[in-house]
Amino acid sequence: MKLKKAQTLIELLIVIFLLAILLPAIMYGFMSSREGKAQQEQRIRASALLRQSEEAVRTVREKGWNDFAVNGTYHSEIVNSNWSLLPDPIVRNGFTETIVISDTYRDDNGNIVALGGVRDPSTKKVNLTLSWSLPKETSITSRLYIVRLDNITKTYTNHLDFDSGQNNGTTIADTVGTEIIGDAQIQLGAGGGGGDWCDPSKSITEVDLPKSGVANAISAIEGAVFAGTGENAAGVSFAKVGLTINEDPPTALINATFDGYKTNSVFGESNFAYLTTDTSHSQVVILDLTQFNDPPTNSKYQEVGTLDIGTGSVRGQSIYVVNNMAYLTSSNSKLFIFDITDRANPILKNSGGLSLDGVGQKILVAGDYAYIATNSTTYQMEIVNISNPTSPNITGYLNLNSTQSGTDIYINTTNENVTRVYLVTTPQSGKNNFYIINVENKASPTISGLSGYDTGGMTPKGVTVVTGNRAIIVGTGGTNQYQVLNIENETAPLVSCGGLQYATGVHGVSSVLQTNGFAYSYIITGDADAELKIILGGSGGQYSASGDYTSENYDTGFDTAFNRFIANVIMGGQTTLKMQVAVAPSINNSCTGINYTFVGPDLNNPSGSYFTPTNNVISGIVPYKTINPNFVNPGQCFAYKLFFTSDDSTQTPIFYDLILNYSP
């Protein structure tokens, strides 16, 4: 009995012991459950209030950036039925709302960083906190990055925008054909003076060539025009006209003549002239312009040599001479190359000649290539590699897919790396008869952009390209026999900007850029009393080979993030245009006297890199960083710098306009 009571007592003690252990835990869990539910309800309410605070921040920002973007600690409040941010935190219904607005910083790549970087004046960091103390101390947070949306643009396009910049070998010119008042463009400068190619006068000087023959050939160098007037027996074969080069207009005087042949074309140098003829075994006659066969009168030049292709009944068609080598096309559709180091004893280098697809109506040479306009209706233009005179070969050709034939051609012969050829052809209904040809790939010439033009019924006889990105086409028939084209933009339809009428027709054209910067075109017409006419050129003569332009200071009046820009430009085949930008802080809130650091897009080499065009557009992002010694973006002051080059003195790249985007 006693044992049973003892066991009962032990069991009771065990129960009491277990209850002592478990009961507090059970009670704590019960109490915690009640408190956790209350805490969860508080968190739900706080989350809703936090979302409301975020909406209040966005609403205030949308009302205006300047009122919003002020660093400080705030709370949200409805004032006059609108959300506002008022100073200091606030406690409402047991919740404390704290809104902190502060600066945002970005690295060189524009990424937001917590440490270092450059302040972005167009982005604000907003930290929002909702806290409460019951049933226990707790808080929730949110972070927003608020960006200014209403960016500002600055446009540069007219004289007011450009004229106050600094020109170094560049100039500000009017942009024609737009509706913008005072529209302007920046381009390479030109020396000397001149008229306007697009507003030509009939002539400033005229010369009546000897006898009454029909003038049919022309070539010119500085100080002299070489004319062939032997299309029929009534004229002399050749006349050299001397020109004064320091007078405007120039004085013209016939120095002397030569006769005895029917002249098909003429090429002139300082001391020699070369006439292609119809005479067998004398397809080219060489004249020494320092020797005469009628001394002391000295009115007739001395023949000193001939080029014989070795075949009779074949006429010489076109000739070009450079570096004591003569390149001759003939009526039997061949190209012959002669070494004329000894003019009296020329040496034919490619016996038998190189067969062309047609008669070479005009040949010009630059570097290792000859460019030939042929009368073929299959290949109107051919390119011949002449690097080995004994074995020239056709490298490339152009097929216009028409029944037209080539009549004349122009290239810049002073540049060995020719990229553009200008070709005129016979007319065909519904077809252009002037083309700009891209020959960067000599094996595959292509028509550049939309660069074709219909001369409107005129049959082209000659073409030349002159200063100011203008082409001159001459011929017979139609309305204007002297037509000037604006060829600045190869990707746009070409249009005539000027012209002249010559009822008797124009049979040839040449142009010269004098060392004093004056430019002239020389034409041979059917006017029996004044075959040779000299027309004053435009754009002030020859373009500079290089130049740069620095814009005026643009002062925003406050620190701002300069974001990006886009510019419209035009570049010819042998020109370049590149650009750098600069941003700097003000000095005493002024941009006067700022020493800019100009940079390009490569952050590893900012001062040595440049923004360059793609499809006649330069665009880019203004670097967002500090670059020694004085590039700081964001900043208050902005400028840009342009760099121009041209390997063709008749062409210039053109900068039309710039749109700059920035965020105050």
TrEMBL record:
Keywords: Membrane, Transmembrane, Transmembrane helix. The chain crosses the membrane at residues 12-31. Pfam families: LVIVD. The keyword Membrane applies. This is LVIVD repeat protein. It comes from Candidatus Roizmanbacteria bacterium GW2011_GWC2_35_12.
